Amino acid sequence: MQDTRDNGRRRLRWLIVAAVAVPVLAGTAVAGATTMRGSGGSADPVSLFTRADTGRATVDPDDRPVEVGVRFTTRDDGYIQAVKFLPVPGDAAVHPVSVWAAGELLATASSTGAGAGWQSVSLPKPLRVKAGTEYVASYHTNRYMTTQRFFDRATTNGPLKAPAKRNGVFRYDTGDAAHMPDQSWNASNYWVDVVFSTRPSGSVTQPPPPPTTSSPVASAKPTASSSTGTPKPTTSVTPPTTFPNASNTGVVPADAKLTPTRGTTVTTAGAVLENLDISGTVRISAPGVTIRNCKIHGDEPFGVQVLTGSVRITDTEIFGFGEAAIAFDNWEADRVNIHSMGADGVKTGSNTTLKNSYLHGFTPKAGAHADGVQLQNGATNVTISHNTIFGPSTAMFMAPDLGPSGAGPVVIDGNLLRGGNYTLQIVDGDNGKHHQKGYAVTNNRFERGAQYGPVTTNEPSSSFTAWTGNVWHDTGAPINR
Questions:
Q1: What one-character DSSP code corresponds to residue 94?
Q2: pLDDT for position 113
Q3: CA gap 420, 198 in Å, rounded
Q4: Whole-prediction pTM
């Protein structure tokens, strides 16, 4: 959905960046080209970028406190020895550097604040990393170097790879604890790198292990259930007692063996898709379908698309799709980890429930109004309860622009919300033609960092049945609409 309401200021800022940025380093311009070096064996240690790569690096005029970084994977198991970054000329400040995975901080250190050009900051201990796992290396700064469109193509050097498009990540300060940068813009490179080695030097930092539970039995394809209702999970999973995060959402256990398969259209009532690694869209055209303990990924518009019928999704990870992880009417999602989306987390219609789920790490495509939860049509029976939702444009954008008006109820209760121009937007549709009624907004906690404020609405009081218990997460101070 094109951002026509409130994202113009950010796009304008980046247009200004392109107009006023001044090159500060000489070298060969290679931004935007696929960089592949040492694709056979690899030197040890190795980094992603060379001095020549920075030839088109420019100083960004933005001066807000921000964490900037790069997403990367390794072909081989090994160790991160150090994090590197390219500061703006004359920057002698001390900068914290970090390594993250799935939103969790794995290692941190600080620069000395001395020197020019690439700064290499050794970690206190080499950090063990696993082949194929995605990590983020970042540093905190008020000013930074950038090259837009650098990640239109992937960069590979030996065993290291920085994927294309949704790379170059950032997150503005929220006023509380540090968070992994998970927003991107214009495939920009912010010139953060790592020093990787297959051999450690000194004692080693081990990343936290996944939870240890029995591995589920793999099922190669959907199977019909004798029940016409919504099937129950075969394993008992205790709902999270804290806000949802990477450790209590998604596949159980995190390293479960899943059976690879392709996207499908489900036409059997009561069908169960379980313990699958699904590449492509799952289209629902039958009632009472269950998706349980699966990974669903791809670059198509939707992860799970409800055409007719209904679906219940539990303990599942959905990532990489262009428009939304789950879309339209008649679905329930519980303990779902949604990330790396090109636009929205979920598009919610009538008879939909999102609970105990983690929506984060969005990588918006150009022009996307990237919302954690988006309501575009008037709806009935919507529940959004006890989720962590970090959205680039908004955490929730509730605007029935496509009509008709909706009677509700729309329950928004007990969520942890962050991000966007406004974190929660509840507005009319199509410039006042359509309205959603029945909002009950209660007990939500707002993190800081939204550009303009936590909440905006132009709907009248009659559209709300409740607004209570909504507070700042850090202080507990009330937030009014």
A1: -
A2: 72
A3: 39
A4: 0.55
